[in-house]
Amino acid sequence: MDPYKVLGVRRSDSDDHIKSAYRKLAKKYHPDKYRGHDLEDLANEKIKEINLAYDMVQGERGTGPNSTRGPSNTRGPGSSYTGSRTGSKASYARIRQMIQVGNLSQADAELDAMGNHDAEWHYLKGVVLQRKGWYDGARQHFTNARNMNPNNPEYASAWNNVNKNATSYAQTQYGNQTSGDGGCSVCNICAGLICADCCCDCMGGGGCC
Amino acid sequence: MFGYVQPLQPELKVKEQQAYKGYYCGLCKAIKEKYTNTARFMLSYDCAVLMLLLGSMSEEVPEVVQERCAANPLKRKTVVRSEVGEYAAAINVMLGYGKVEDTYVDDKKFYARILMGVYKRVNSKASSEYEALADEFAMRMSNLRELERSKSDNIDAVSGEFAKLLAAVFSMAPFEFMDERAKKAMWHFGYNLGRWIYIADAVDDILEDETQGSYNVYLQREYSDIEAHRQNIIEEARFNLHYSLSEACKAYELLDIKRDKELLDNIMYLGLAKKTEDILKGDMNGSV
Questions:
Q1: Is B156 within 8 Å of B144 (Cβ atoms)?
Q2: Is residue B21 part of a domain?
Q3: Which of A78, A80, B112, B173 is most buried, judging by how many CB atoms fall within 10 Å of its CB?
């Protein structure tokens, strides 16, 4: 492994540049972003590789490893599903267990077989659907769970995360790089036209526009 | 597919633009060489991106050559030749045939019936070469038709079938660089890109489908005024489109991209974002 390649930097780059490249990568593959996700293991491998590369570079340069490291993945997979706070019903605990080991179809079947759809039911159904790639249904069930029990932090956080995940694409990718909301670009066009008009007038023509 | 997956042209550097065109021409040439000249009419932007992505992951550096083309015989064009071209060509043929078949089954268009006849043999050839994938195709398409026949209003279920079709396309590419990790990330990538394409197409076609009485997942609920209904579903569609893209990007960031990264980044972060906005604003209607 070439640690410089992993970090996307050159050997001649400054320590500060490498540190900032490392921080960017660490943020990009942050364990929180992939927690409970199908690709969590791949992201964890990636962050380990990045950490190792950074340690190697630092060792090579004598800047000392581990001094400024960002996130490390110490928490186990799926840890967000373990705390069964409302665990009054044994079946919910069992379903959470199934979700944690990735047995989604069985969890889904058990949920469907239950008659009483309380907040916890909607929450778990949302988790199953989200893992299954049914994001629309997931959001609806998280919304139901949150409306039925607004004080539960687990439901609120699931609802928040599902919405944040969608908006994060619009904000971080497109919105920052181009004039996102259209209003701005209309202004630009107007300003451009006014400028062009002025130019034409200056040239004494009037013929061109 | 539908030609939705494209870079945002004004943000491309000249060399990236060249590479993109090179893949597009390379795919077209691969279709001609492996299949027929007429099959080239099915050429799709989406499959050029499939070829570009696979080419960027390949161990083998793609060969860039200057060649003449029947469409413009006087000018030499940049053409990318890569080991992945043949696979992308087969996918292009299979998806192209599926789309024609769909037009015939849904709308009973006579021209579609003719095209089915024209493309039947090339489709059989592609299918016999990638049998497992062809089986997956057949299953997903039949599930999709069943859902459409039963007038399903479940966005997740309907888009999920097309999503799984693309998940198979991306994850079953038969190349050495497709190890278990790559397969897993590519499955997730294909699923979410496919989900995005299906929903984007549904939103884009909503007015047209309403006029023609064709199936559209967004037309299966009660509504009185179609324009108002379209406005009502926009926020919901925005969530679904952005969520799918966010997930596709998560998978994309885990792929081992060896070249053309700037071009791919443009497609993933700018091209798809722009297309999403255009579709939600209704700018695209009728143009695809």
A1: no
A2: yes
A3: B173
Mutation target to probe the A interface, by most A beta carbons within 10 A, among B249, B254, B255 is: B254
Check CB contact under 8 Å for A165 and B181: no
Number of domains in chain B: 1
> How many domains does chain A contain in total?
2
Annotate B1-52 with DSSP letters as a single string: --S-----GGG--HHHHHHHHHHHHHHHHHHHHHS-SGGGGG--HHHHHHHH
Q: A13 is in which domain, residue-wise? A: 3-61
What residues in A contact B185, CB-CB < 8 Å? Answer: 39, 42
Read off the amino acid at residue B75: K
The full length of chain B comes to 288
In a domain, B27, yes or no: yes
CB contact under 8 A, B246 and A178: no
Q: Looking at the domain assignment, is residue A114 inside a domain?
A: yes
Which residue matches tokens 């997930």? B247
Q: Tell me the nearest-neighbour CA distance from B76 into chain A, angstroms.
A: 34
Residue A69 lies in a domain: no
Q: Which CATH number do you get for residue A48?
A: 1.10.287.110
Which residue is listed with tokens 């980044």? B265
A198: in domain: no
The mean pLDDT values, 10 residues at a time, for chain B of 288 residues are 87 94 94 89 92 95 88 86 94 92 83 87 92 94 94 96 97 96 96 97 93 92 90 93 96 95 96 94 60
Within a domain: residue B89?
yes
Q: What is the CATH number of the domain that holds A147?
A: 1.25.40.10
Nearest Cβ partner for B240 among A37, A46, A135: A135
Domain end marker among A21, A43, A61: A61
Q: What token pair was written down for B50?
A: 């499939």
Residue in B185, B249, B270 nearest the CB of A42: B185
Closest among A121, A123, A116 to A159, alpha carbons compared: A123
Contact call for A169 and B273, based on CB within 8 A: yes
What's the distance, CA A49 to chain centroid? Answer: 20
Determine, yes or no, domain membership for B288. Answer: no
CB contact under 8 A, A173 and B253: no
Name the minimum distance, in Å, from the CA of A14 to any CA of chain B. Answer: 23
Q: State the ipTM, two decimals.
A: 0.88
State whether A169 and B243 contact (CB < 8 Å).
yes
Alpha-carbon gap, residue B260 to B266, rounded angstroms = 10
Residue A17 lies in a domain: yes
